[in-house]
From TrEMBL:
<dbReference type="InterPro" id="IPR050319">
    <property type="entry name" value="ABC_transp_ATP-bind"/>
</dbReference>
<dbReference type="GO" id="GO:0005524">
    <property type="term" value="F:ATP binding"/>
</dbReference>
<keyword id="KW-0067">ATP-binding</keyword>
<dbReference type="GO" id="GO:0016887">
    <property type="term" value="F:ATP hydrolysis activity"/>
</dbReference>
<keyword id="KW-0813">Transport</keyword>
<dbReference type="InterPro" id="IPR027417">
    <property type="entry name" value="P-loop_NTPase"/>
</dbReference>
<keyword id="KW-0547">Nucleotide-binding</keyword>
<feature type="compositionally biased region" description="Low complexity">
    <location>
        <begin position="13"/>
        <end position="26"/>
    </location>
</feature>
<feature type="region of interest" description="Disordered">
    <location>
        <begin position="1"/>
        <end position="29"/>
    </location>
</feature>
<dbReference type="Pfam" id="PF00005">
    <property type="entry name" value="ABC_tran"/>
</dbReference>
<protein>
    <submittedName>
        <fullName>ABC transporter ATP-binding protein</fullName>
    </submittedName>
</protein>
<feature type="domain" description="ABC transporter">
    <location>
        <begin position="37"/>
        <end position="286"/>
    </location>
</feature>
<dbReference type="InterPro" id="IPR003439">
    <property type="entry name" value="ABC_transporter-like_ATP-bd"/>
</dbReference>
<dbReference type="InterPro" id="IPR003593">
    <property type="entry name" value="AAA+_ATPase"/>
</dbReference>
<dbReference type="InterPro" id="IPR017871">
    <property type="entry name" value="ABC_transporter-like_CS"/>
</dbReference>
<feature type="compositionally biased region" description="Polar residues">
    <location>
        <begin position="1"/>
        <end position="12"/>
    </location>
</feature>
<dbReference type="GO" id="GO:0055085">
    <property type="term" value="P:transmembrane transport"/>
</dbReference>
Amino acid sequence: MSAPNSRQNQPDSAAGASHEAAAAAEPLRSGQAQSLLRIEGLHKTYAVPGGRSRRSEVLRGIEFTVEENETVGLVGASGAGKSTVGRIIAGLERPDSGAMLFRGTDIWKLRGKQRNEAMRPIQMIFQDPYESLSPWMTIEQLVAEPLVIQRVQAGNPAARREMVRQALSEVSLQPDRYMNRHPHELSGGERQRVGLARAFICQPQLIIADEPTSMLDPSLRLELLELMNRLRQRHNIAYLFITHDIALTRGFCNRMIVLDQGVIVESGPTEQVIDEPQHPFTQSLIGSLLELNRF
Ligand SMILES: Nc1ncnc2c1ncn2[C@@H]1O[C@H](COP(=O)(O)OP(=O)(O)OP(=O)(O)O)[C@@H](O)[C@H]1O
């Protein structure tokens, strides 16, 4: 495999990358500029079904940063490990090894309450709004649920209600029209906004968005992206945007990371990576897209 190609100040890299990349991934010293998120040497294996104690290596020494207010696209073929990266950063899965620094705090070294509090500004939204919302709960209960889990404003239902109203307004859902409804009474686009409101109510600084638009038609897709962009500008939110869709990456992300079989093979400003892909895998990914566009 060719060496990872990186064109930014703080290179994204895979294990075994160049000396410059290794140096860039060293722990921060005081005075050094801090990234919002910094992932270092992330490894993850899964047990091979029926393989006795055999494990397959899904992430192999991933390193990258996300800066404040950035939109970073994480692209790659199916099975490359993109969602695994997202789930690990959001705390839904455990890494085998590596470090995650959020505003310089080494999150995976924290435990219990401290860790939950440090993780609160990191939220995730999912591909399938139908699956990610419980059908039995009202929209008010669904949006308030993260507050309940994190015991925010416990014992103060009026304050929680006001936070739900604000979160719904931020995603352009009129509170009075939506609070008492259930997910099945909403369109796919509205459900995805509810998912975004659930993330937003936690006052996130980083949202991991795992293919959030792939089940929406093109006009709803555009609306959701515009909304996400507005939230980013208004509330200084960064996104790690997981997608197969290179065209969408071009429109939405300032930077792009290409993952192939658990290794980052290329990263840089989106336009540059798309217009002048350096790594053979990126070249073939973009080549396939151009081929598809001919149909
Ligand atoms: N819980 C799990 N147990 C075992 N293997 C898993 C598990 N989750 C993911 N995998 C495997 O890890 C690899 C990476 O999966 P992942 O979902 O991260 O890829 P992806 O790049 O997001 O793919 P897609 O674009 O198709 O969603 C795949 O081979 C997948 O089968």
